[in-house]
Design the sequence.
């Protein structure tokens, strides 16, 4: 029997993981290239062109060609109260719609989490607003629903003392936000519902045995479990809602005045009414920069919420 | 010591206990509340479909009419006018969705099963294009399209819709590919399958339901898209959303006709959405939520 | 104080389905460690959940400490439960997990942390782990947190649903004795569910064997081993399992492996009374003795003049399993070809293919009714 005499640690050996071969590397890259190239070309070129035009003075309705004008377009954007108004309104509309839709979404998800007669039918009914073409939703709400003289809403609210309200004139912003909420609550509800249904039932049983009633269980266990789902819903919803265009254009056309004009509509107006390509480009660039700033925070949250799955 | 029990009579159901009655009435109340909410949310859609069957005279009345003699006149009007619009929508939707799948499946493959070294950056790049608003570039885009003679062309819409849906599709398809059991791929590798075979024989068959739901989600977004269609088309590529807008005349009664047009425009997507219901959450969250 | 009673308790899941638990009658004494054991589908987990209040009863009642708790919700039964998958609250720290029930009872904060720390010490849980979340813990640590959550409540009854099944073998053996020791120290009535008969035998004061929703036998481990009341209990308890063989009756005994094996008179009487042509014979592996001085030994004598009243069982060795101190011999019996298992001392093994004759004492043999499985006794 040998006795260990030398107890010094073995010498350090430098072992590194083997690198992927060049061939393998390109074999992996190749499938990605078509989509990558396509996306770069189709999305980045327009932005480069936009950037170029933002430094030009170019009006669509005059024969004069585009000529360099430095930062004057940007000056106009930053001093324009219309732009600032549109920005503020975008924020107000998005934040309001997202928050209300999420609160309603949580409530309805809790409602649909329990089994009851016809649950799948109710679920199907509830997701329909999300599936309706946004243009159709906007026009139907503007017409048969909210019309001051013939609309269904006015008729339904009559017992509550409401008389022929011209919603799109007196409560324009609220009406637009209402339609946004109507269309996006199902989205929030579905995401929260997925969260509710992913809770391990054993944990809820343990809470029952530990003496927690329905409210305590929701507050202590369910809500913390739902947090990543709620965050995801808020994040995705904000991305989609900040770009809402159809409802604004088709319900109020940005009005009365500019009371419902958000950023997408403002840009649309610059192009279509003012024919100001240069100004629209500069507005576009500023919008993009603002979006990048917000998106950087959002992307960080995205990675955390998505808990990046490795292959 | 306890003796073994001999087979007894069958267990009889007992009388409803007081607790159970309370449970049942609670359940009924819950169900009623849920149904009320469901119907309330569905009401505008119901109203839309109802109004579509009215003659214009019955559509703009006070109080609103629930009983009336239904007519298909509005639908006939819609179907006589929708020809080019629906054709353009169908072409733009199906071609762009096919293109998305053709580009997206290999890309998702390169970001999941045999990932490129910087796959995280790749994913982030794709999702960042979704976050940047296309609206910002609409002016220059218009000018650009004009210069390359793509303005008012169905191909422009196809190109843009593909770019619009590609990031979503890549994230979604990637999430499906990650679910293919690693052992299956290793077995195929041991059996001598090349990369291409691995894709066609193993991966695609396994994720085919996922591909279908991805395609359905892309169809929904492409069909409903208004902003690009509105700004970049006039007549040669006008899609269904544009058709809707055109059914709002400057003057005259139009609510019933509008409702019929809206119904016709929305119903295909609604049905697709009802079918793909289960995968809707997954699609909307880009595969984050199963 | 805290004795537990099942009185004709039943649970049925679907209208015409066989009951999951069929009129269970069980009396558990205060402070007793009662183990419910049985194969999967035996109803043991359902019975436990009925006691917890997580399953309603479709017949009979359940009592905790003389009180009928059949309609009392779980949180008012003063019980604590350890779940098979631990069911720890993932977003809460270990300390918060353990204190949760106390928080629900509005126990003040310092009292809560005191009791948590006491329980942690009792379970050998490092204080540093108290601020971690469950996902940062190992399986064994999580199991102890689940136990700690139950202990902290100082309930009337502990309920445990296969708490060791997710641990690796070595940890299981270690934790087994810790749980038994803990229960002795705390003296709280415990109902413990497992499918592992080794756990049942080593931990329980008494063990209730269930099969198909019916209670087969409830007794001390020793009694279950020595005096099984039917074939199921005999075959379930003991490892390796008892050898069970269906054999035809013959003059003076039963025909086994080519010879007539003697049976005690009361067994023969019971068989005669029931008009049986054949019975099921049960022999534990350790009761098959190798004769001294070699495999064949003194020739088999069919019980004639043998003072111990023993019989002979002959066959051919097919496989040897070395366990270290013991060895298990798999033997194919002569004439019938049935396979049996015998336990011998580690050093006295035989090579495969060897013919061997075992001595079995007449009184070590169990006999069961071939149809009902009931033990044939006087």
Sequence:
């Amino acid at each position: 029997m040998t006795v260990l005499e030398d107890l010094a640690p073995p010498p350090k050996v430098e072992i590194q993981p083997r690198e992927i071969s060049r061939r393998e590397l390109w074999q992996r890259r190749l499938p990605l290239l078509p989509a990558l190239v396509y996306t770069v070309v189709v999305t980045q070129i327009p932005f480069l062109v936009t950037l170029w035009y933002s430094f030009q003075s170019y009006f669509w309705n005059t024969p004069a060609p585009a000529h360099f004008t430095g930062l004057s377009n940007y000056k106009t954007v930053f001093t324009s109260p219309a732009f600032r108004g549109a920005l503020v309104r975008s924020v107000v509309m998005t934040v309001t719609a997202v928050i209300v839709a999420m609160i309603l979404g949580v409530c309805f998800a809790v409602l649909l989490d329990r089994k009851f007669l016809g649950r799948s039918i109710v679920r199907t009914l509830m997701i329909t607003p999300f599936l309706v073409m946004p243009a159709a939703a906007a026009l139907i709400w503007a017409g048969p629903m909210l019309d001051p003289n013939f609309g269904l809403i006015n008729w339904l609210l009559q017992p509550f003392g409401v008389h022929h309200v011209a919603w799109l004139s007196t409560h324009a912003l609220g009406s637009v936000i209402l339609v946004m909420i109507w269309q996006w609550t199902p989205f929030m509800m579905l995401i929260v519902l997925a969260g509710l249904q992913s809770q391990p039932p054993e944990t809820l049983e343990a809470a029952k045995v530990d003496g927690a009633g329905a409210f305590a269980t929701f507050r202590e266990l369910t809500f913390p479990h739902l947090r990543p789902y709620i965050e995801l819903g808020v994040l995705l919803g904000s991305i989609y809602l900040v770009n809402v265009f159809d409802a604004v254009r088709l319900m109020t056309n940005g009005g009365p005045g500019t009371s419902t004009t958000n950023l997408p509509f403002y840009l649309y107006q610059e192009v279509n009414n003012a024919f100001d390509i240069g100004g629209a480009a500069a507005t576009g660039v500023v919008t993009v920069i603002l979006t990048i700033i917000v998106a950087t925070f959002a992307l960080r949250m995205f990675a955390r919420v998505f808990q990046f799955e490795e292959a | 010591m306890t003796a073994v029990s001999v087979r007894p009579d069958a267990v009889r159901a007992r009388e409803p206990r007081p607790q159970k009655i309370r449970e049942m009435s609670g359940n009924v109340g819950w169900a009623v509340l849920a149904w009320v909410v469901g119907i309330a949310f569905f009401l505008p859609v119901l109203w839309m479909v109802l109004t579509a069957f009215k003659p214009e005279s019955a559509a703009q009345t006070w109080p609103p009419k629930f009983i009336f003699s239904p007519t298909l006149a509005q639908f006939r009007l819609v179907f006589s006018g929708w020809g080019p619009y629906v054709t353009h929508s169908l072409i733009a939707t199906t071609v762009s969705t096919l293109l998305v799948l053709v580009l997206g499946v290999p890309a998702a493959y390169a970001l999941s099963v045999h990932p490129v070294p910087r796959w995280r950056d790749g994913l982030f790049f794709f999702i960042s294009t979704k976050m940047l608003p296309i609206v910002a570039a609409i002016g220059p885009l218009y000018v650009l399209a004009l210069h390359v003679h793509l303005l008012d062309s169905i191909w422009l819409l196809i190109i843009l819709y593909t770019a619009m849906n590609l990031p979503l599709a890549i994230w979604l398809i990637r999430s499906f590919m990650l679910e293919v059991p690693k052992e299956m791929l290793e077995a195929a590798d041991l059996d001598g399958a090349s990369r291409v075979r691995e894709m066609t024989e193993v991966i695609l068959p396994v994720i085919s339901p996922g591909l279908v739901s991805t395609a359905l989600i892309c169809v929904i977004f492409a069909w409903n898209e208004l902003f690009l269609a509105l700004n970049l088309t006039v007549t040669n590529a006008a899609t269904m959303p544009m058709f809707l807008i055109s059914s709002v005349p400057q003057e005259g009664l139009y609510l019933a006709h509008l409702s019929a047009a809206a119904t016709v425009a929305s119903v295909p997507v609604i049905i697709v959405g009802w079918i793909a219901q289960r995968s809707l959450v997954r699609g909307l969250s880009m595969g984050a939520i199963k | 104080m805290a004795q537990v009673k099942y009185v004709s308790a039943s649970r049925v899941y679907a209208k015409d389905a066989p009951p999951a638990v069929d009129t269970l009658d069980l009396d558990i004494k205060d402070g007793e460690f009662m183990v419910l054991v049985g194969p999967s589908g035996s109803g043991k987990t359902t019975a436990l959940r009925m006691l917890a209040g997580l399953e309603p009863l479709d017949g009979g009642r359940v009592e905790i400490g003389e009180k009928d708790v059949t309609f009392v919700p779980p949180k008012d039964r003063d019980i604590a439960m350890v779940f098979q998958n631990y069911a720890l609250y993932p977003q809460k720290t270990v300390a918060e997990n353990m204190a949760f029930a106390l928080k629900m009872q509005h126990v003040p904060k310092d009292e809560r942390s005191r009791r948590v720390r006491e329980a942690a010490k009792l379970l050998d849980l490092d204080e540093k782990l108290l601020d971690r979340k469950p996902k940062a813990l190992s399986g064994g640590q999580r199991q102890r947190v689940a136990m700690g959550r139950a202990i902290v409540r100082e309930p009337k009854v502990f309920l445990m649903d296969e708490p060791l099944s997710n641990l690796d073998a070595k940890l299981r053996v270690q934790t087994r004795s810790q749980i038994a020791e803990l229960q002795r120290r705390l003296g709280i009535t415990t109902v413990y569910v497992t499918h592992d008969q080794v756990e049942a035998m080593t931990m329980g004061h008494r063990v209730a064997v269930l099969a198909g929703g019916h209670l087969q036998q409830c007794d001390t481990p020793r009694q279950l081993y020595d005096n099984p009341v039917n074939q199921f209990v005999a075959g379930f308890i003991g490892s390796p399992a008892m050898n069970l063989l269906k054999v035809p009756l013959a003059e003076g005994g039963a025909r086994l492996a080519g010879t007539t094996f003697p049976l005690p008179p009361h067994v023969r009487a019971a068989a005669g009374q029931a008009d049986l042509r054949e019975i099921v014979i049960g022999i534990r592996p350790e009761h098959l003795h190798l004769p001294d001085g070699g495999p064949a030994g003194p020739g088999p004598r069919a019980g004639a003049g043998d003072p111990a009243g023993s019989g002979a069982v002959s066959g051919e060795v097919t496989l040897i399993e070395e366990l270290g101190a013991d060895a298990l011999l798999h033997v194919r019996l002569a004439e019938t070809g049935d396979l049996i298992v015998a336990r011998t001392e580690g050093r006295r093994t035989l090579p495969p293919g060897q013919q061997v004759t075992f001595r079995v004492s007449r009184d070590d043999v169990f006999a069961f009714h071939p149809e009902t499985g009931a033990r044939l006794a006087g």
